[in-house]
Each structure stands twice: as C-alpha cells, then as structure tokens.
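Q: My labmate handed me this sequence with no annotations at all. I'd like to see what the chain might look like in three dimensions before we decide whether it's worth expressing. Could you predict it?
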Amino acid sequence: MAIKHNQQIPHNHFHKDWQRRVRTHFDQPGRKSRRRNARLQKAAAVAPRPVDKLRPIVRCPTLKYNRRVRAGRGFSLAELKEAGIPRKLAPTIGISVDPRRANLSTESLAANVDRLKAYRARLILFPRRTGQFKKTDSSKEEIEEHTKDEGKIVRKTGLALPITNVGRAEAIGEVSKSDMPEGTENAYRKLREARSDARLVGVREKRAKAKAEEATATKK
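A: Here is what I predict for the chain of 220 residues:
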C-alpha cells in the first residue's frame, strides 16, 4: 500500500552500518600483475613442458548446444587403447585421462584418436637420467635439435592443437537431388502398414480363432 501524507516511515532500517560491509576492488591492478607473475613462474618451473595438458574434443550437452565442441575432462580408456598409449603412461606425458568417460559414437572416438596420434608425433620425451635413453624416449638428435631452437618449444598445448568449431557458413551447404539416396516407393505408406500390423496382431489372432471355432461348430 502506498504511503500518503506526512506519516511515519514504517520499518525504517537506518542503523545497519553498511559502510563496514562494502567490498571494494581497488586491488584489481595488483591482482592482475600477481596472476601474471604466477603464470610466468609456473611456466618457468615446468619448462620445457607445456603449462597445460592435452584435453579431448567433446560435444556440449543438451539439444541446444550439442552442435558445439569444447575441451573435455580427459581421454577415455578406449581412445588411449586405439592410439596405442598405455593408460599409466598417459598422465606422465601430459595427457589427461578420464576413466569414467565412454565413447557414444565412432566419430568422437576417431577424432580423439587422431588428436592423440598428432600429439604423440610432435612429442619430444627427455630421458629421466641424462644419457640413459629408454625405448619410449626421443632420440639424442631430436632432443639436441629442439633444445637449440627455443621457437620450436610449445608453451601451451591448447594453442598447438586447438579445438575449433565449424562456422555456420561452412556447416550449411546445398544438397542436390542427384546426391540424395534412392529410397523405396511409398515409404510412408509401408511404415503406417507395418505399425498397424504390429498394433493389431492380438485382435486379428482373436478374430481368426473365433472364426475357426465357429466353422468347427457348424460342421458338428
């Protein structure tokens, strides 16, 4: 109800001391530089490794967004098996693993297997101890070549192997009649007849049984 005339204001909360509870953000420039320094320190600590791990390509959930792809939590065990990478080795060489994830289509499996193979082809594995090369490690010549040229060292895996979405102009294209597959004649009619036959199985059996009983009764 609206207040009229010079009446007392009801429920007046004027003693809250709100000035003490105001949150200011004057430290934003300082936080920005602190975050940048932390990123540089992390990159220096893990160098020459990239700062991030390799993530799989997954589709966004729900019908509204499933046309888009994004980075997932980790590669499934089936994808690692197809790419020939042991599941225990994968986290040690910068590949994220999600054992709970399952592949629901062959397309997603093939895309992520290709992604793993492309990553494995570009990967340079240093030996844990200098001079002691294992079967999975890169050769001495490859290591020397990449350590000399710092431009070849990748700092972020996401930039080297990006996940891109297809644009609307590229996704939509014209389909000519000659490209369409040849279907059967009266496909809709056949579907309706098959549906009707499946629905009326019991009724027709009952009718045929009653007719047969009537025929046997008339013979007697």
